[in-house]
Design a protein that fits this description.
Elements: H1 8-31, E1 35-40, H2 43-46, H3 48-63, E2 67-72, H4 75-84, E3 91-92, E4 95-96, H5 100-124, E5 129-133, E6 139-143, E7 146-149, E8 156-159, E9 165-170, H6 172-180, E10 184-188, E11 190-192, E12 198-200, H7 203-214, E13 218-223, E14 238-240, H8 241-247, H9 257-269, E15 274-279, H10 285-291, E16 298-301
Parallel strand pairs: 1-2, 1-13, 2-10, 5-10, 13-15, 14-16
Antiparallel strand pairs: 3-4, 6-9, 7-8, 11-12, 15-16
Helix pairs in contact: 3-5, 4-5, 7-9
């Protein structure tokens, strides 16, 4: 009879894996039954290996009793499609100027191409995903008007950036029905107004809005940075809601981080317990955040 013995390095590897599972168990119990809203975009969505990792993570969440709701972005893909059609990409305050031709491209890329890819990837990994556009009777939107201050006159003026909107109401019954059927909703960040016009909506904004309306246990915003940094450029691992409100007005919080923090604040003021801004470029970032002692990124809590 032949016996195979593990080398010391193999034993150490498997012991480490077992320790990881033991560490994860109390967090799995803690989150079981929770609804968690995840904004998925950036590098995590554009990299094939990371997208496969993300899909497996989402399937795992469902297997341990968590109900994930995914809102995806698609800025780079939209930009590429517009370029192929010789349509310009112009931005005001980080938002894409969206005319009639552009909104058609946006809708096509988000609802048909990207949404289907994510649904297929999650389904291949064992999850029961279902795609839906926010414009399919899910999100009622209103036109977003941008106020800009003229640097010379200091006078504020309204800038029309076309079919760019903000969420006004959510048909929550649709999502609750999906969740009851053990399906994983994958939502394109679009909405329609009362005149049936389609609007492009920032994906972070949609994620925060959906989380708030669902009273989700947690909101995760996957980004291309490790989280929120302090004035010394060091990562802040945790903040209270009060601290997040205070820090959001600081000069060293700049660029796209300000609206992300505000999204978390808005969601939590509507009942979301915790929110985390984390680095989606790290493989299995969602699992690391939810099922390990220290998590990753910057967590904002009501405590």
């Amino acid at each position: 009879m032949k016996f195979d013995f593990l080398s010391e390095s193999d034993q150490a590897y498997f012991i480490h894996k077992a320790s990881t599972l033991v560490e994860a168990l109390p967090y799995i119990r803690e989150h079981s039954g929770d609804t968690i809203v995840i904004k998925y975009g950036g590098h995590a969505m554009g990299d094939k290996k990371l997208s496969e990792s993300f899909s497996r993570d989402i399937g795992l969440l469902k297997e341990v009793g968590i109900s994930p709701v995914i809102i995806h972005g698609g800025g780079p893909q939209i930009g590429e499609r517009l370029k192929s059609k010789n349509l310009a990409s112009n931005f005001v305050e980080g938002l894409r100027v969206t005319d009639k031709e552009t909104i058609k491209v946006v809708e096509e890329v988000l609802s048909k191409d990207i949404n289907s890819e994510i649904v297929d990837s999650i389904s291949t990994s064992g999850g029961k995903a279902i795609g839906i556009s926010g414009s399919d009777n899910l999100i009622t939107a209103t036109k977003l008007n941008i106020e800009l201050k003229d640097s010379d006159s200091n006078i504020e003026k309204i800038v029309d950036i076309g079919f760019v909107g903000e969420p006004k109401s959510l048909n929550i019954n649709i999502l609750e029905d999906f969740i009851k059927k053990d399906q994983i909703p994958v939502i394109s960040p679009l909405g329609k107004d009362e005149q049936n016009f389609t609007y492009n909506i920032n994906a972070d904004t949609v994620a925060g809005f959906v989380a708030g309306e669902l009273k989700a246990s947690k909101l995760l915003l996957l980004t291309d940075v490790p989280g929120i940094f302090n004035e010394e450029k060091k990562l802040i691992s945790s903040l209270t809601l009060k601290e997040a409100i205070e820090i959001s007005g600081m000069d060293y919080i700049s660029g796209g981080m300000k609206p992300k923090i505000q999204t978390c604040i808005d969601a939590m003021e509507k009942g979301v317990s915790k929110s985390t801004i984390l680095d989606g470029r790290i493989p299995h970032s969602v699992i690391l955040e939810l099922f390990t002692e220290h998590g990753i990124g910057t967590q904002i809590s009501n405590n």
